[in-house]
Structure formats: C-alpha cells, structure tokens
Design goal:
Blueprint: E1 42-43, E2 51-52, E3 56-58, E4 63-66, E5 69-72, E6 77-80, E7 85-88, E8 96-99, E9 104-108, E10 115-119, E11 132-135, E12 143-144, E13 147-148, E14 151-152, H1 157-160, E15 166-167, E16 177-185, E17 190-192, E18 195-196, E19 200-203, E20 210-217, E21 224-227, E22 233-239, E23 246-249, E24 255-262, E25 279-281, E26 297-304, E27 321-325, E28 332-334, E29 337-339, E30 343-347, H2 350-357, E31 363-364, E32 367-369, E33 373-375, H3 384-388, E34 396-398, E35 406-408, E36 415-418
Parallel strand pairs: 1-3, 2-5, 3-6, 4-7, 5-8, 6-9, 7-10, 8-11, 9-16, 10-16, 11-19, 16-20, 19-21, 20-22, 21-23, 22-24, 23-25, 24-26, 25-27, 26-28, 26-29, 27-30, 28-31, 29-32, 30-33, 32-34
Antiparallel strand pairs: 12-13, 14-15, 17-18, 35-36
Length: 465
C-alpha cells in the first residue's frame, strides 16, 4: 500500500503558506543539478500539495486537483500515469503545476489513454486555471539580479514563491522530463494584468527533455511559449486559443516539427493592445543583440487562422498575422502552411530584415493561402514581398482558403490532411542546414500531416466549450 507524503516546514517571510524546500537549495545558482535517484515513487493524495519534494506518482484511473501553485522541488519527479485527469482551480487560488529547475515530470500517456489537465469549473472557459510550467537549466539571454542567463518566469510564479520561478543556466542538454500524449484544456489564467500563465510554458528547458503529442485547448493566453532553452518538440496542437499559438523569446533555439493550429474567429486576445498571431517571436522584449539569439527552427506546421471559418467582417478585431517575427529574432520556418490570416507574414524591424537578407532567418517552401495581405510591407530599404518571392525560397501564395484543399477546417470536425489535388501533397525541402542533425523527419508534403495521416486523432479533443 502506498502512503501519501506531504512535507511541511516553517514558512518564508514573504509567503508563510509556501514553505521552502525540505533541503536547502540555492535557487539563484546559474545551474542546479538534479538528484539521480528517482526510482522510488509514492502515491499522491487527491489534492496535490503546494510542494512535491519526494518522488510522487499519480495513479491511472484517478482524478487529482490543483488548488494552488504546486511546485516540484528538491530533485523530485512527479510521475503521471496514462489516463490520469488533473483539474486546475480558478478561485480562490489559481491552480498550476510548476516543475522547478531541480524537479522533473514523467507524464507519459498513450494514444488510447492520454493524460488530461483541465478546468475544475462546471462550465469551463478559456483561462480557468494556470497551466504547466517547466523550468530548466539551459541557456537564455536574460539577466536577473545581475546574473546573466537567469530569469524569472512570467505568470506571478516567482512573486508567489521567491526563487521557485527562476530558470536558466549553462546546461544545454538539461532534462526536465517527459510530456507525451498530454492534453491541457482551458489554461492561461491571468495572475495580474498582462501577467498571464500560458498553456505550456518552457523556461530554459534543455534538449534532454522529451515533448511529443501535446495539445493545448482554449488557452487564455499563448498556447505554447518558450523563454530561452534548447528543447525539441514534435506533434504540438494549439486549438482555439486567445493570444499566440507558438511564441518564442529570449534565445530559444529548439527544433519543432509537426504542429497544428486551429483558431476560433470569435475568440482572440481582447486585452489592452491585444494581438492574436499564429507565430510571435522576439529575441528579447527590447529587440537587442543579446546572445544566445532566438533562432528556433520550425518545419511542417499547419496554421489555420480565423478566415477559414468566418468572413473578415465576422472575425474578432485582434487577429493580425500568421507569423509576426520581430525584435531581432532569427527563427526560421520551413515546409509549412498559413491559412486564412489577415496578414500572412510580417518581418518587423530593420534588424529582423537584416537577418532575413543574410539567411540567418529563413522562410522557405511555405504556402500562404487566403490572406488579403500576403506579406506586410518592410522598411524603405527592404522589399519584403520580393524577398518572400525569391525563386530559390519556393514559397507559394493561394488566393482563397479553399485553394489549399485541407480535408476539413471545422472547429469540431478538424482534419488538416491534404485532400486530393491539394498543393500541399508535394513541395517540401529539407536541404537547409538548419533541418539537419537528426531532429527532423524528412517529408515530401508541406504542413503537419500527410494524406491519410492520423497522428492527431484518438488522444485529442476538438470540441466546443
């Protein structure tokens, strides 16, 4: 018989309800080493404690509650078995699961029995609870308290429990664990104005981490956001979120393949200065040249925007671009399709344009369909449409959403596979050096799915609220 283990101790001065780790840990150190002994698991109580400081398993067939910020600390691993449901609370506190820099997650669902994080509300809505936050020891380009490469993750985590929200270090191959066959529903609660938690947030997560088959649905902020780090991901789905789908910042350099986006034309970022984009990418908030520079590589992404299911007149005003690359980002996008966005692509700023000119930023073998403005105008010295149309880049434009011939773009009947006669059935190219090294699977098709593909079926949920 397993026993519940909850460790308590005297509180910290700034928050007496959130005690410090059972063992002293220097949370300002640039790199935190995890313990290697993660073999003895114990069963969790149904309501998760504020701290998990010893190896803990959540058992198949059970439902658990996140009633507050739950921190995984002290080298502990939280193991979540297939078929587990975890419900996050909205009030009085905001539920969220935070894997600190010296914690780990082992969440391996299956296609038949995914792990589901969802809202505890009887009638769920976007932004009902926090989300999943993974913090690691890989590099970023930020600085905190005079320490280069150290950051505090957004969402009020570090303000709630000082030190527990920090991320960053020098360990590029750091391992924060595994997320596989996981659904995250109705996350993205606001801790404060303009300080939200995303569906899944990565803070300096290293390439030793496995992220594969993860769906974020109805997020109140970004579906996926990376702050620095080197983690590679495959088979990501952003479904009917409000803000951005894939947001990359602070030197993120990972490789992402097979991503799906479906946007709800009536749901967007209605906050102050809200702008809803498929991709949004910055080097940092000030657009500096700090290193490591944001240089993530994406391939085989299908980004279905609001015009796929509504006319422009019936679409929420905050919708902007399929991809907004700005503030000196050097991300690259290959073999992908952007469908039904007001603007297909915006290269924003002279430094970003310079990276495009030098091929530090690449945008190749992509298709933009059904966008009234394919590419936003550049500065006086950069003709963005001419750059996009460079013959060697093999980018394509299609006048209408229907021209791309996806099988179904409906909210509850979504099937992104290319139908007969679709231009996406061929045209992919993997000759760029950025697509080498073994992280990418070579395809002949453009977009996230081949004809007849089913990787997005079974473990996912495409449904109204």
């Amino acid at each position: 018989m397993f026993l519940a283990v909850i460790i308590s101790s005297c509180g910290k001065d700034d928050d007496p309800t959130t005690p410090p780790p059972a063992q002293p840990v220097d949370m300002t150190k640039a790199t935190i080493e995890r313990t290697s002994d993660n073999s003895e698991f114990k069963e969790s109580p149904e309501t998760l404690p504020k701290q998990i400081t010893s190896n803990t398993v959540l058992k198949t067939g059970k439902t658990y509650l996140l009633t507050d910020f739950t921190f995984v600390l002290n080298g502990a691993t939280i193991k979540i078995e297939p078929g587990v449901t975890i419900k996050g609370s909205k009030s009085p506190n905001k539920g969220a699961l935070i894997i600190t820099r010296n914690g780990k997650i082992d969440a391996q669902g299956t296609a038949a029995a995914p792990i589901v994080f969802t809202s505890s509300q009887a009638t769920p809505n976007s932004g009902d609870w926090g989300g999943i936050i993974l913090l690691g020891n890989a590099p970023n380009n930020g600085a905190k308290d005079g320490i280069a490469g150290l950051q505090a993750i957004e969402g009020g985590v570090n303000e709630t429990a000082t030190g527990y929200g920090l991320h960053g270090g020098t360990k590029a191959d750091d391992n924060s664990g595994i997320l596989k066959y996981v659904r995250v529903e109705y996350p993205g609660i606001a801790f404060a104005v303009n300080d939200e938690i995303n569906g899944v947030t990565f803070g300096s997560v290293g390439s030793g981490t496995t992220v594969d088959y993860v769906q974020v649905s109805h997020s109140g902020d970004d579906s996926f956001e990376w702050f620095g780090g080197t983690v590679n991901c495959k088979h990501l789905i952003a479904y009917r979120g409000t803000d951005d789908d894939f947001d990359t910042d602070n030197g993120f350099s990972g490789k992402i393949q097979f991503g799906l986006v479906l946007r709800d034309a009536a749901v967007a970022d209605f906050g102050p200065s809200g702008a809803s984009n498929g991709f949004e990418s910055d080097n940092d908030a000030d657009g500096t040249t700090k290193t490591p520079q944001t240089s993530a590589t994406f391939s085989n992404i299908t980004v279905v925007g609001p015009y796929a299911n509504a006319t422009p007149a019936a679409t929420a005003a905050p919708y902007k671009r399929g991809a907004h690359i700005r503030r000196n980002s050097k991300i690259s996008i290959f073999n992908s399709v952007f469908v039904g966005w007001p603007v297909g692509l915006f290269l924003d700023g002279a430094l970003t344009e310079a990276s495009a000119t030098s091929n530090a930023l690449e945008y190749k073998n992509n298709t933009i369909a059904g966008s009234p403005l394919v590419v936003a105008p550049g500065t006086a010295t950069f003709n963005s449409l001419n750059w996009f149309s460079t013959a060697a880049f093999a980018n394509k434009t299609l006048a209408a959403v229907a021209d791309v011939k996806l099988t179904n773009t409906g909210y509850t009947t979504f099937d992104p596979t290319p139908a007969a006669g679709s231009p996406l059935l061929a045209g992919a190219d993997f000759t760029s050096a950025k697509l080498g090294g073994g992280a990418f699977t070579t395809t002949t098709y453009v977009g996230a799915a081949a004809a007849g593909d089913t990787w997005f079926k079974g473990w996912t949920k495409f449904a109204d609220k």
